[in-house]
Amino acid sequence: xxxxxxxxxxxxxxxxxxxxxxxxxxxxxxxxxxxxxxxxxxxxxxxxxxxxxxxxxxxxxxxxxxxxxxxxxxxxxxxxxxxxxxxxxxxxxxxxxxxxxxxxxxxxxxxxxxxxxxxxxxxxxxxxxxx
Length: 131
Description:
Layout: H1 2-17, H2 22-25, H3 29-32, E1 40-41, E2 47-48, H4 50-78, H5 86-89, H6 100-119, H7 124-128
Antiparallel strand pairs: 1-2
GO biological process, one term: intracellular potassium ion homeostasis
Membrane topology: Multi-pass membrane protein
GO molecular function: metal ion binding; P-type sodium:potassium-exchanging transporter activity
């Protein structure tokens, strides 16, 4: 329940930061998904095209998922003990860091890939990475 609350909170914060306050979201789905409606007004009078709305919507979906993952980190930690406080029990997180260098490797790899894409547009890297 708390995980869902964290996810929905993030979802609504993103929409509010983009001009769609929670009170205006009720009943907006038909207009939101209408491909021909390119002048949907937000809470501040700004008009949104279909493509712009979908970018915000997909951002909300991604952030919702990421929020669930972050909240699950707490579940991982609290499952360590049944009665003792985590602070009383203590935690050895030695094995948690085994994969950390691989996380850095993924970031480095992707940044190099993007650099090559920018420097050599239309090259073999771009043709092989049609994502």
